[in-house]
Amino acid sequence: MSNFLNEKTARLAPYVPGEQPKDKKYIKLNTNESPFPPSKRALSLAKKEMANCNLYPDPDCSALISEIAKTVKVKPENVIVSNGSDEVLNFAFIAYCSENAPAIFPDITYGFYKVFAGVNGVPYKEIALKGDFSIDVNDYLDKNGVIFIANPNAPTGLTIPLSDIEKLLKKNKNRVVVIDEAYVDFGGESAVKLIKKYDNLLVTQTFSKSRSMAGARLGFGVASEKIINDLKTVKYSTNPYNVNRVTAAMGIGALKDKKYFSDNISSIIKNREDTTLALKNLGFECLDSKTNFIFAKSDKILGENLYLKLKEKGILVRHFNKERISDYIRVTVGSASEMQAFITAVKEILGE
Prior knowledge:
The structure is a single chain. Helix 3 packs parallel to helix 8 and helix 4 crosses helix 5. About 40% of the residues lie in helices and about 15% in strands. It is of the alpha/beta class. Helix 6 links the parallel strand 5 (about 145-150) and strand 6. It folds into two domains: about 5-35 and about 260-350, Aspartate Aminotransferase, domain 1; about 40-255, Aspartate Aminotransferase, domain 2, CATH 3.40.640.10. The protein has a seven-stranded mixed sheet, with helices on both faces.
C-alpha cells in the first residue's frame, strides 16, 4: 500500500473472489457460474448492439427494465438495474445504513455484506446461524438496523419461507429489509410478490447464475417506487451509465428466451440432485440446497484437504476457512459430465 492511502481504506478487508488460476485447464466448480453459454437470442441482440458502442447507453435502461418488469410481474417504476446485483446491494448500504442504522446479517452468508459495510464506513451486526445453519427470523425482529438476508443463503444453500420474510417486514416497518435472491431460480420462492404489500422491502436478483451472464455483469432490484427512487439517487450520483449497451441487450434476449432458461434450470437441478445422492452414497453430509451449488462435508477427509486434492486433479471447488464451515466444500453444479468427473475424483481421493 502507498503512503497516501487514507486510514479508512487501509483498514478494509476486501472481498476474496473464487480463484481463477491460469496455470492449467480446470473443471471450474468454484464460482457458481452456469455451465451453459448465454442464449443465442441474448448473443444475437448483443452483437447488433455492439455497432452502437460509440454512443452512451440509455441511463434509464428503459427497454431492459420494461422486460424485467414484465418477467417478474411488477411495474417498470418498481425496478432498477445495476452492474451485477452487487451494485444494487451497495446502493442499499449507501442509502440506508448509517451509525444509527447498522447493517444486520447472518454470520455465515455472502461475504460481500461485511465488505460493503466497511467500504461505506457503517457498523454491522452479525447474527449466528442455528446449529443446523438455518436462519431463525426471530433473531432479527425489532432490530435497530437494515437487514440483509440472502435467500437462498450462501454458502449453505438453505432457504427461509415467505412467511418468515413477512414477519421481518412487519416487525421492522421503519427499516428496510433487503432480500438477496441471487439463487432463487434454482428452487427458492421469490419475495418480489410482497413489494405490493410492504414498502420497506427491497429484493435483488442477478443474471449471473441462472441466465448465464456472470461475465456480462447485470443485476436488478425490485421495490416500492419510493425505494427505487432512493436507489436512483445513489446511482445518478455515482455512475449514471452503469449498465452498458451490450449487456442491456443481452439481458433482454436472456429474458425473452424463456425455454432456454427453463431447460437450463431443469438440467442444473437434476445434476444437483444426482450429485447430492452420489455424495451421500459416499458418506457425505449435504445440506438441502436450493441453489446451483452443493455444500457438503465428509468425516473421512478434512474440507481443506479435499479441496487441495481435487485441485491437484484439475477440479476447482470452494473452501472457506471460517471455523464453523471449514469442514465443508462448496461445489458449483456444472454439466452432467463435469459432475461425473467430480464424483469420480472424490471416489479416487477417498480410496487413497
